[in-house]
Amino acid sequence: MAQGSVNAPNTNVDQTVRIYDAFYAYEVDVPQLQYDTIFSYFNSVFGTKEQAGNFTTVVFRIAEESGIPAMQLFEELRSQGLPQLNLTLAYYLNTLRSSTTLLGINAAVTPNYYVARNVRA
């Protein structure tokens, strides 16, 4: 089979995708097929390419930080419904974030009475 044909990948071309998140200063090279698989799933679930790209980046970041292979993590996420998917992602993201900015926590903060009365709306 000829090199670079439709049926055989061109081995001279890099088969990875570089993920770069400027906000978190996160950068990693991942296999192209894994990236495309995860991105296409999130694109079908969330509807916009921006959301799909953000969640795809998150999966690879979680995989790197936790030591769980990205495709194993993806299979776990894919088997869940949307509400459970959101909870699972919040759980994993909370392990990466500061404890002062946790996701999915609904505890109402009650300010000190004397401080609260001095705050104008």
Explain this structure:
This protein has 121 residues and is mainly α. It has one domain (16-116). Helix content is 50%, strand content 10%. A two-stranded antiparallel ribbon has the order 1-2. Helix 1 packs across helix 2. The longest helix has 18 residues, at 49-66. It is elongated, with a radius of gyration of 20 Å. It starts with 15 loop residues before the first strand and ends in a 5-residue tail after the last helix. The model has no long low-confidence stretch (mean pLDDT 76).
Task: Write a short abstract of this structure.
The chain has 121 residues and is mainly α.
DSSP, total strands: 2
The secondary structure category is mainly alpha
Termini separation (Å)? 72 Å
Please describe the biggest sheet, giving its number of strands, its sense, and whether it closes into a barrel. Answer: 2 strands, antiparallel
**Count of helical stretches:** 5
Mean pLDDT: 76
Beta-strand share of residues: 5-15%
Strand order within the widest sheet? 1-2
Which term fits the overall shape? elongated
Residues in helices, as a percent range: 40-55%
H/E topology pattern: EEHHHHH
